[in-house]
Amino acid sequence: MQYSRRKFLKFLSGFTATVGLGFSRNKLTAMNISNLSTRSGEAACIPRPIQVVIDDVGWWSGWDGSGQQEPFRTGISRDHTLADYKSIIELGRSLNICPQAAMVLCEWDRENILRDLPDSTWMGINWDNGKWAGPWLDEAADLICNNPDHFEFTVHGIGHEYWSGGNLSRAEWATADGTMRTEEFIHNHLEYYQKIMQQNRLGSFPQSFVPAAFNHGFGTTAGNQVSLAELLNGFGISYINTPFYKMQNADKVKNAVFGLDAGVLTIDRGNDLLNWNVISSLPKGEIPGPTCGMHWPNLLHENPERNSEIVQGWAAFLRPYDDRLETLLAQNSDHFQKQLIHHISTRIRVAGKQIELDFSEADKLGTEKAMDGLTVKFRSSQKTCFDSQDLDILSSSAVREDSTILYTLILRRRKTQSGASISFSKHGSSIDK
Ligand SMILES: [Zn+2]
User: Fold this and answer.
1) pTM above the 0.85 mark?
2) DSSP labels for 24-72?
3) With 60 as the cut, is the pLDDT of residue 230 above it?
4) What's the 213 CA to ligand 1 centre distance in angstroms?
5) Are 266 and 296 in contact (CB under 8 A)?
6) 206 CA distance to ligand 1 middle (Å)
7) Alpha carbon of 52 to ligand 1 centroid (Å)
8) Any idea of the CA torsion for 330, 336, 342, 348, to the nearest 10 degrees?
9) How far apart (Å, rounded) are the C-alpha atoms in residues 211 and 13?
């Protein structure tokens, strides 16, 4: 995380022996959060995590071909270049986060295997991707594979839409009302997605998914015995991000912004700040939920040499969310999922000289994602040290905010206890102004 906007205080001594000062953030796999609790000038919070999700990465042409039965693609007037991949990584590096890139892969097909999957492209059995089979594929694949901490490969689609008799309809995985296509169709498309990944040595199959055009159903939909989530899980996917306003069966989600569908965590994307094809524009407004969703052009400039202007605008926009008591920028989607569960389900309160956590609601969800750990933020007017018999305090950092100090504690659960406490005490002198 970046603390450049405020004075960064040194790590404090006095933590339990489990505090690892050299702990790598990227190895963290634990987080949760919950309500805000204040008492006598102190405040504790399980902050809302925010995860960046970027759709429609992977197109080489930006052209919106929907008027000619071709995909919408990214809807911009130029082709995509390596610089556009570097922009995602630059955003990740600038904020020490791992943006999710929801990838469309048909224009990565070097061997025209999609001729055998004619409903996946506008050309059907005559599919020919020769135009896009060039050295840029290897260059982009190298960038992706060499930056796993700042680029998470997420499944989005092969051709993004569905073609029948040369006619396009939306979208690849489900119809406009969120009804899943047939089980066989889903299986074939996931298999061919994997084959194109293998052609390009893009690594192991992703663990996350964003439905094309956000056409999605939670749980089973008409005509199907299983849900899309369950089929995706068979390929190793454990997390779906999609806006609930457009999701069939959204009323079956019990926790407002997340639900478990065949064990697959499904998280609300909410509304994006920018329209899908807006380019060369800086974001403004407020991120109301856990997902900062955008489409690839939103991060880019019409002139790719100026992409960095837009990327740094996003970095400046997002950074303050990391500095607040109530929010944080998720380090990656694994951290994001675990923290969101605790933010919603785990209770926190300050009692005496203790921060008390109640995990009972999170544990009732029955997901391993609740068992790992969480991040707690704590605000105090005094330099403070922390200790816990119940939790490992993996790391603690602090930033000064005028007359207070904001602490970030990264915690790991030691066992499946339903409650835990962290004691805090004054450390040295109060803040020198
Ligand atoms: Zn899309």
Assistant:
1) yes
2) -GGG------B--EEETTEEEE-PEEEEEEEEEET-S-----GGGTS--
3) yes
4) 5
5) no
6) 17
7) 15
8) 0
9) 46
Give CA 341 to chain center in angstroms: 14
Determine the pLDDT at residue 311: 98
Angle at 345 between CA 399 and CA 357, to 5 degrees: 60
Q: Using the predicted structure, report yes or no on whether residue 175 has a pLDDT greater than 70.
A: yes
Q: Which amino acid is at 405?
A: I
Over range 197-205, report the average pLDDT. 98
Tell me the C-alpha to C-alpha distance, in Å, between residue 425 and each of 14, 16, 90, 122, 155.
10, 13, 39, 65, 47
The C-alpha atoms of residue 75 and residue 278 are separated, in whole angstroms, by: 8
Give distance in angstroms: CA of 210 to centre of ligand 1.
8
The one-letter code for the residue type at 132 is: W
- pLDDT at residue 412 greater than cutoff 60: yes
Gap from CA of 388 to ligand 1 centroid (Å): 45
Taking ligand 1, which is a single-atom ion, which protein residues have CB atoms under 5 Å away? Answer: 55-56
Q: Which residues of 183-202 are buried (b: 16+ CB within 10 A; e: fewer)?
A: eebbebbbebbbbbbebbeb
